[in-house]
Design goal:
about 120 residues; alpha+beta; 2 helices
């Protein structure tokens, strides 16, 4: 028989969406055209939440969550654009920028001088 993927409903930024069980908040948002900033997420690698840009707020949870490493749950209420999430994102971006050892000069080369994959 064909395995039917089960779908659940959740809410992102006031929008009711349907997502497959086993998807992350980031994937579910992207599937529904909702943009969550992110850098480290890549389809081919296991998410490890390193960049911290995809941080979101979840109703009923005191902690901020990384959308790339948090799986969707039924009835979840997610907000990507709260002042708290935006502030955390700015801090994360500062940390990334301050840790970037690239000594780049134009014109751009394919390889980053610091051997960092910044794509």
């Amino acid at each position: 028989g064909v395995m039917k993927m089960s779908n659940i409903r959740l809410n992102i930024n006031g929008r009711e969406i349907v997502a497959q069980v086993g998807k992350t908040i980031l994937q579910a948002a992207a599937d529904n055209g909702i943009e969550i900033p992110h850098l480290c997420y890549d389809e081919r690698i296991k998410p490890y939440g390193a960049c911290g840009l995809c941080i979101v707020e979840m109703e009923g949870s005191p902690k901020l969550a990384r959308a790339c490493a948090t799986f969707v749950q039924s009835g979840q209420v997610v907000k990507t654009d709260t002042p708290r999430a935006i502030a955390a994102r700015k801090t994360a971006l500062k940390l990334i920028a301050s840790d970037h050892r690239g000594d780049c000069r134009p014109p751009c080369m394919l390889a980053c001088p610091a051997n960092t994959d910044c794509q």
